[in-house]
Structures are given as structure tokens and as C-alpha cells.
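Sanity check

After download, print the first record. It should look like this:
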Amino acid sequence: MKVTLRDIAKAAGVSITTASMALNESGRLSEETRRRVQTIARNLGYKIRPPSPARIEESSTVGILLSIDADWAFIYQFVRPVVEQIKSTLEEQGYATIVIPISQKDPVDDIYAKIQKSNAIAIASLHYGSEVLFEKLENAGIAVVVVMNSNYQAQFYSVCADDYQGAYEGTRELFRMGHRKIAYFDCLRQDLPQLLTDRYFGFHKAIVEYGIKFDDSLKIRVEVGNVTALTEQLKTLLRDNPDITGIFALDDELASWIVAVLSHLGKRIPVDISIIAPGDVLEYSLPYVPQISTMRIDTGYMGKIAAQMILSRVTQNPEGIHVLKVKEQLMNRGSIGVGPAGLSEE
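Expected C-alpha cells:
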């Protein structure tokens, strides 16, 4: 039976990434660990190939997978601090970083070939997710850290926002401000089905705790970019629920569309309807961007801890799958007014 990298890692009591670096003469390992892994590999009958000069020279490279699909264009400003913090944190420790542009349409083998060509010893995947690709990379000794995608937290090292708690606290803020009739708007986001689940469940938990009956008709799925359909959905919502005073939106990009349509319909934010959303995807310093109160995600901090997780994976042998969740913080920009029930202190 052919000896695999996984067999060697198990026998040596190290991670697959550590075993790969020991056999390829790459990464930052102690000589004792490197020699022990190599000895075990030889004893198991594994033939160690000398690394190429190019691999030795570029063995401290970490790749960052970044989608270039049009569906994700609106988040580039949002993820820029993640990329910058990963880059600066790793460079302080002597590692180089390279951004690897990818598309959801790219075959896994093509993305894998790009990564192999970059000689990366680890990968940070921003939003993009593929179990097949991540397994293939891990089996090849390339450490994977998934960033801003909670779909894979049970299988791979991950750094993500606490979307459940953020939605829960955002909804409670609407209640605290006196709103009792609240609608929930969401939309499909590429590669992020867990995002929709976590944010709705957090929203619903707050609803249940306040003892408020939530009609399913108040949970509205929006087609991204279809302003005509959104306009009709909001008209129907306001006609059937004249007492509605609050909206929780999946993210602030979607919230900005809702605000624009409500304004067109003659509704004032927050005088007539208050709105909150997780995110801070929008560039709020721009004068034409509506000021939406959000449950802010600190993307710079996420980048920093993602880099630290990568460093831990390529220099140590942490046990099990580690997942770090970043708490979302309320950012009050004035889109939540006092509702019919009045301001309450909690």
C-alpha cells in the first residue's frame, strides 16, 4: 500500500501541514521536528524528493483566495482591511503574501493549479468555499484557513463573524427603541447559505424572547438588483401591515436598496420606518451612501486573527479544528428612531 502524507503525519504525531513542510524542507520548523518526520517517513518506505530551488526560495508564501465574480464586487472595500491585515501581520514574521484571483465558475482543478504554481504553504480563503478544494489542499500539506464563511467551520480552520449573535443583538436594539412590528429581509449570497440561516435564527431568537408573534409573511426574500420586484414587495408589505415600523435586513448592501425604495414610496428613515443590518459593507464616508445603523464587523481584526491562525498552523501542530468568531458591534448612524412602544432600558 502506498504511504501517504496523512500516514506520515499520524505516525509522527504532527499535522499534515507540518509533515509536508518537514519533507519539503520548507516553513519554520525546529530541526528536531524536521529530522523526526523525515526519519519516520523513510522508515515507512516513503521516498523523500529533494525540494527544487524555486520551492525553497518561495516556501514562505501564503496565498489569499479572492473572488472576482460580479456578485462579490460590492464587498471589495469591505474585505480590503482583511487582506491588508493578513499581509502586514504575515510580513512582520517573514512571510510573503500573494492574492490569487478566482471565480465560482473556475473548476477546482484550475484553482488548485493556481495555488500550486504560487508555491503557497497556506491559503486564506475569503468568502469562497469548496470542500473538495480545501480537502485537496490539506492532503497536499497546504494549510487552509476559511475567512468570513461559516459553512465550513466544522471541517476546516475558520475565522468568521458571529452572525447569530449579531442579528440577535441588532433585533433587540430595534425592540429597545420601541419597535414591535418588524419585517425581515434577506437575499441569496453566493457561497454563503449558512449566513442566511445564522442571521435569521438570531433575529428569530430575539422575537421569541420578546413574546412577539412573527408572521411568515414578514420574512421577505429579495432578488438582488431587481428594484421593480423589491418595490412591489415593499408596497405589499406596507399595504398589508400599516403598523410596521422596523426592518432588519440581511446586510447593509441590501438595506441600502430598501432605503432607496422606501424613500421613493414617500417613507422617511427613521421617522416612519427604522432599519438595521449587519455588515459595514458600504463606504459610509461617501456623501451619497445612506447612513444605516449596523452591527459592524471589524474586518481588520478578522484579518489579523486569520493571519495568526495561519502562523499557528504553519509553525505548530494545534490539535483539532479551531474556529474563531468575531463579535459584531452596534454602529449607530441614525437609521433607528423611537418606535410606538417608546424607548426602554435593558
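If your output differs, re-run the checksum step. Summary of this record's structure: The chain is about 40% helix and 20% strand.
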